[in-house]
Amino acid sequence: MKGTGRNIGINLIILAIYTIVSAAIVSQDHSGYAGAGYGLIMMTLLAIHVAILLIIGIVFFVRKDREKGKMYLISFCVVLLVGFSACMGGMQAM
Among 2, 29, 8, 1, which Cα is nearest to 76's? Predict the structure, then answer.
């Protein structure tokens, strides 16, 4: 699977960017609900990100390009795993 590492890396960089942006936005909130706000923002962004990856993966499978389909489904799993962990960890830290 040529290019899988690059694809996963790009998606993880995208995940890191919106994780940092959401943490910066929520850090301005000094109430006791900053963790919940961070969790809601991250869950929404993560859901959009993994939905796009899943749809792209399914489209490649339908078009009979199994290699690219597998690549996007692996990226889907990695981003979902890392993103969910970042979401839960960030909620505890805020």
Answer: 8
